[in-house]
Design brief:
With about 290 residues, the chain is mostly beta strands. It is built from two helices and 22 strands. Helices cover about 5% and strands about 50% of the residues. A hairpin with a 2-residue loop joins strand 3 and strand 4. The structure holds 6-O-phosphono-beta-D-tagatofuranose (TA6). 6-O-phosphono-beta-D-tagatofuranose binds next to strand 20 and strand 21.
Length: about 290
């Protein structure tokens, strides 16, 4: 994604501007430490390139930026649920319009905060009052945190995920470590299997690792780098790649798009968490390349 080519609609500070990409407004960061793009549609991080590296985040070459459907790639915000437990799949946050609340441009990088709160539109899907705040800390590394607060008078239950698509040079060469000693296989009726904590991928994979270590490492030999993913506030690391056949069936993926993508997600899956009125919960992911 060539961020410099996108037409500027508003300059916000020396390194932050608003620009337009098809049907969506994007917060663009062109900073000496990193380049990044965050779509207000979905509160969706589209790109993050720390100085001296290829993009850490994968984006489909066939992604839909019309602002009408979820964007394939980046970091979709799945909330207030994860998966297909209700409709729409992965919740409504990733197809909602978020508001730019604040930004800060400093020597080491930038921070950007977006908010989403309940509205008649969200009540039609999920009948609760809430405030969600997405905080992006972008510099040498990337940190994304979603803080969800129950502003209702009754408890509600949420699940969700920061559904990160990592950009790898070749999925068959990527090696994951730190995944923990068991996983649930979504492609095998959610059966549990033991794991030695490492994974190399040569077929479709869709797994939840509930015991992952604080840092998950992804060796990415073609890019001569190692990505480190640190998640918190989650209960599983989800690892997903649809592989050839399934991705060929997706309108927003090119036939070989699966070769360079690897989802390593910070997910609060299954039962999720119940928040009392006034209570908040954070889900975080932090990604660095070296
Ligand atoms: O996180 C993995 C997963 O839940 C998979 O099961 C897969 O369907 C994927 O997310 C993508 O979902 P989407 O709704 O974006 O097509």
């Amino acid at each position: 994604m060539n961020l410099r080519q996108l037409p500027t609609t508003k300059v916000l500070s020396e390194h932050i501007s608003l620009c337009r990409l098809d049907g969506i407004d994007v917060v663009r960061i062109l900073h000496p430490q990193c380049q990044a793009a965050i779509s207000l549609f979905g509160g969706h991080l589209l790109s993050f390139r720390p100085k001296g590296h290829e993009d850490v985040i994968w984006m489909s070459e066939a992604a839909d930026f019309s602002g009408h459907s979820a964007i394939r790639g980046g970091i979709p915000v799945c909330w207030p649920w994860f998966g297909k437990v209700a409709s729409p799949s992965h919740g409504f946050a990733r197809t909602s319009l978020w508001q730019l609340e604040s930004f800060n441009d400093h020597k080491q990088g930038v921070t950007v905060t977006l908010t989403l709160h309940d509205s008649p539109k969200t009540h039609a899907i999920w009948p609760f009052r809430f405030l969600s705040r997405l905080h992006f800390d972008l510099g040498e590394r990337l940190k994304v945190q979603i803080t969800s607060t129950n502003t209702d008078y009754r408890p509600w239950t949420m699940s969700g995920a920061l559904h990160t698509y990592l950009n790898v040079g070749d999925i068959t060469q990527a090696k994951l470590t730190g995944l923990g000693n068991e996983y649930t296989d979504s492609l095998a009726e959610n059966q549990r299997f033991p794991s030695n904590g490492t994974l190399m991928i040569d077929d479709a994979v869709d797994r939840l690792y509930p015991e992952s270590e604080p840092s998950i490492m992804v060796e990415d030999p073609p890019h001569y780098r190692r990505l480190t993913v640190k998640n918190s506030g989650h209960n599983s690391a989800v690892v997903w790649n649809p592989w050839q056949e399934a991705s060929a069936g997706m309108a927003d993926m090119t036939p070989d798009g699966y070769i360079t993508m690897l989802c390593v997600e910070s997910a609060l899956a299954d039962q999720g968490i119940t928040l009392a009125p006034g209570q908040s919960h954070h889900i975080t992911t932090e990604i660095s390349a070296d």
